[in-house]
Amino acid sequence: MIPALSRALSAALGAGGLSVFITATPVAAQGWQCAAPSSLPRAEVEPRPRAEPVRRTAVGGYTLSLGWSPEYCRTRKSSARDRLQCGGEAGDFGFVMHGLWPEGQAGAPWPQYCRPPTPVTPKAARSAFCAMPSVSLMQHEWARHGSCVTRAPDAYFRAARVLFDALQFPDMDRLSRRQPTAAAVILAFADANPGVGEEAIRLDLNERGWLTGVRLCLGTRFRPRPCEGRGLRATAPIKIWRGG
């Protein structure tokens, strides 16, 4: 089992692990307009799906997965389950944190569900909310991925939030109006984050070709590294929903 993520992340920061892409004036880019409600839903522990096995495999790196909230909320504005993220009462979100995922070594399967599920604490949920405005998603990410990274949800979300808050984001409204290719979107993201190479960035699309998220590939010390496998072809057209 790897060391607690909070300790490993502190070591990485001390060695310049994240400083390679933290700008001189970091901002919480997508959470500046967020207003966490006075009370959040209680985290509900869900049983592990039978189709998802327990895997306590060695960690070879990490993926910081970001979701593009306008596309996610496009058909969920009236969803009771997604009201905090999509209903407008807590803010209008752009990129949000989907999760910090441990990856396997040398193409091996990723570890998952390493410990019996425990509820995300109210303290952890509140501290992570403006980056991940869904308590049910927090609970899922902690149970499936975070339980293989550290012993407590507070440390897991604290570390993930450090990574998320270190990022800068391109002007997605302007980018969307240019009818960009995959290469253009990746370049814009890399240009906004000096030290993050284009090879460390992957895009997620839905079946209709709309952007749903961005993935940042990290090594075991949380430094950007080339992603494994083949991504989208450089000339693939990318559609970006701006909301509305």
Short description:
This protein has 244 residues and is α+β, with helices and mostly antiparallel strands. It has helices at residues 5-14, 69-73, 83-86, 122-128, 135-144, 153-166, 172-176, 182-192; strands at 61-68, 95-103, 201-205, 211-218. Strands 2-1-4-3 form a four-stranded antiparallel beta sheet.
Low-confidence stretches: 22-29
Percentage of residues in strands: 5-15%
What overall geometry do the principal axes of the alpha carbons give? Answer: globular
The amount of helix comes to: 25-40%
Name the helix and strand elements from N-terminus to C-terminus, one letter apiece.
HEHHEHHHHHEE
What average pLDDT do the residues reach? 88
Q: Kindly provide the radius of gyration, computed on alpha-carbon positions and rounded to a whole number of angstroms.
A: 17 Å
Number of helices: 8
Number of strands: 4
Q: End-to-end span in angstroms? A: 45 Å
Strand order, sheet with most strands: 2-1-4-3
Largest sheet: 4 strands, antiparallel
Q: By helix and strand content, what is the structural category?
A: alpha+beta
Write the layout of secondary structure elements.
Elements lengths: L4 H10 L46 E8 H5 L9 H4 L8 E9 L18 H7 L6 H10 L8 H14 L5 H5 L5 H11 L8 E5 L5 E8 L26
Antiparallel strand pairs: 1-2, 1-4, 3-4
